[in-house]
Automatic annotation (TrEMBL):
GO terms for molecular function: protein O-acetylglucosaminyltransferase activity. InterPro entries: OGT, TPR-like_helical_dom_sf, TPR_rpt. It comes from Microscilla marina ATCC 23134. SMART domains: TPR. One of its GO terms (biological process) is protein O-linked glycosylation. Pfam families: TPR_1, TPR_8. It comes from the Bacteria. Keywords: TPR repeat. This is TPR repeat. TPR repeats lie at residues 7-40, 41-74, 75-108, 109-142, 143-176, 177-210, 241-274. Coiled coil: none annotated.
């Protein structure tokens, strides 16, 4: 039975509700604890956390600020306050909060990493690099900081440094899907398609449901003239309208114009923005031309598809 004047029991009850995902009930419990002991910084902190989970950011800010008012050296409250500020787009306030957390605990790697993310969002890439490097210096196996460092390097066009950072993250956590994807994107940007494919395939090993990635692998094969290697990837992601278009390309290069048209029509039907469809379709011609498709035949397909688009918009 709950003792009504025991703040610790109310705190424990709040934690139990949190574990069950009952955040509103947790809030009530923490408020009870605060009612008994108004300067209970842990209760204010927990209250802020639960407000965050309910997307009640202004209430979360008030709760974290109250926790900090009671205990100015409360580093976790400072970092959480920074997270809320950043989520609201208040980047300078977020930076100040993270810096306060770091001032309290210079080895607080999460605060350094969060500071790096905020600087990155502001385009302050050199500052972001310094922050991520500091986080990594404190915790060398901090795989997320390595990935984020790679993202900044890529933004600066430092592709070799980006690749090294992503590889470092993968060395720490071999099943880090996002690191493999980022590595693949970087290789793709360098036109190193085979390395990009290998990286994307590794990412697929850890998340076979990533249809966009299957589409990307297929496309990298296709633009190299490897239609047969591309085909199964488009088939596995056929629910995507661009995979439907690309599968049409494969059939066209195989000489099956009728089958190609079926997939083109399917893609056209599923892409709401018809201008986007035709822009993408036209931009693909150079890759088709390299695989033996002449301009006249291609333009005839475009004409037929445009006519279908007009017909589809006519009232029944």
């Amino acid at each position: 039975r709950i003792q009504p004047n025991d703040e610790d029991i109310w705190i424990n009850l709040g934690v139990a509700y949190e574990g069950l995902g009952k955040y509103e009930d947790a809030i009530v419990a923490y408020q009870k604890a605060i009612g008994i002991r108004p300067n209970y910084e842990k209760a204010w902190f927990n209250l802020g956390v639960n407000y965050e989970w309910l997307d009640k950011y202004e209430e979360a800010i008030i709760a974290y600020q109250k926790a900090i008012e009671i205990k100015p050296g409360y580093e976790n409250a400072w970092i959480n306050l920074g997270v809320v500020y950043k989520g609201l787009g208040k980047y300078n306030d977020a930076i100040t909060a993270y810096q306060k957390a770091i001032e309290i605990n210079p080895n607080f790697e999460q605060a350094w990493a969060n500071l790096g993310v905020t600087y990155d969002d502001l385009g302050k890439y050199e500052d972001a690099i310094v922050a991520y490097q500091r986080a990594i210096e404190i915790r060398p196996n901090y795989e997320k900081a390595w990935v984020n460092l790679g993202v900044v390097y890529k933004s600066l066009g430092k592709y070799d440094d980006a690749i090294a950072a992503y590889q470092k993250a993968i060395g720490i956590k071999p099943d880090f899907e996002q690191a493999w994807i980022n590595l693949g994107v970087t290789y793709d940007d360098l036109n190193n398609y085979e390395e990009a494919i290998v990286a994307y395939q590794k990412a697929i090993e850890f998340n076979s449901a990533n249809k966009e990635l299957l589409l990307d692998i297929g496309w990298l094969y296709f633009i190299q003239g490897k239609s047969q290697s591309a085909k199964p990837y488009f088939e596995q992601s056929i629910e995507l309208s661009h995979s439907q278009m690309n599968l049409g390309h494969v059939y066209l290069t195989e000489g099956d114009a009728q089958k190609a048209m079926e997939f083109y029509q399917q893609s056209l039907h599923n892409i709401e923005d018809k201008a986007e469809f035709f822009e993408g379709f036209q931009s693909d011609f150079p890759y088709l031309e390299k695989q033996g498709i002449n301009r006249e035949a291609f333009d005839e397909i475009v004409t037929q598809l445009k006519q279908q688009s007009v017909n589809d918009e006519l009232p029944d």
